[in-house]
Amino acid sequence: MRFLPVGDSMTIGRAGDFTWRYRLWQHLESFPGLRYEIVGPRSTLYDAETGAPGSTAYADPAFPSAARRHLAGWGEGWLHMAPVIADAVRRGRADVLLVSLGLIDLGFYTDSEQTAANARAFIANARAANAHVRMVLLPVIPNIRAASDAPFAAECARFNELLAKAVADLDEPSSPLLLASHPAGYDIHTDTYDGTHPGPSGEHRLAGAFADAMHQAWELGGPYAAVPSTSPSQPARRPRPQPLPV
């Protein structure tokens, strides 16, 4: 089973982050009988000092290099990933796509209808590379901007409706689509460090949304463990200056 994480800044992470990808890797490692690989053409974090995705400074340096692979980018959305997903699936021989996209699209590039069209193109392109690929799609989690920008909040809600419709329309037995549940208990005030990007507890909640969806639908792995409280090995990130929304 080869997993390919796909996403924006919430998925690539920033220098010093653990990332939800790391939390999911820990979860998968807890099942000794599960044979899997994490694939993808990229492996680094976003470096705010250089403005480029070139950092290897994960919060846990023991995170194996092979498990760091992904297809995620700071400021990238469905618009950017739809044209490149087929190549990533083909090269990585990906079996399962774990996708968290949409917030950056709605915030900067496309409205809900256009974003949904790009999501459908992404699904078609992924299947062109592997007709049996599975996908788990995470709904957009509105960020701090949505709290004060009602039209943006409405676009986020509308896109999530359209994403659910796309999953219902395009789901196939040979290439199943799952719409993950909104991460249980996710609170942008406590689960992020800036109202958008996940801190340690938010990383766990995002990983748990993917893990639980796969377990419930496909009996893959098991339920995600409860989100732990902050501990010395999982330090809370200090607030940073507000970066780009995604």
Describe the structure.
By secondary structure, the protein is of the alpha/beta class. The protein has a single domain, classed as SGNH hydrolase (Rossmann fold), CATH 3.40.50.1110. The protein is 39% helix and 12% strand. The strands form 2 sheets. Strands 1, 2, 5, 6, 7 and 8 form a 6-stranded parallel beta sheet that branches. A two-stranded antiparallel sheet has the order 3-4. A hairpin with a 4-residue loop joins strand 3 and strand 4. Helix 4 packs parallel to helix 6 and helix 6 packs parallel to helix 8. The longest helix has 21 residues. The radius of gyration is 17 Å and the shape is globular.
Task: Summarize the structure in short.
The protein has 246 residues and is an alpha/beta fold.
What does the secondary structure layout of this molecule look like, with pairings?
Layout: E1 2-7, H1 9-12, H2 20-29, E2 37-38, E3 45-47, E4 52-55, E5 71-72, H3 78-81, H4 85-92, E6 96-100, H5 103-109, H6 112-129, E7 134-137, H7 144-148, H8 150-170, E8 177-179, H9 200-218
Parallel strand pairs: 1-2, 1-5, 1-6, 6-7, 7-8
Antiparallel strand pairs: 3-4
Helix pairs in contact: 2-9, 4-6, 6-8
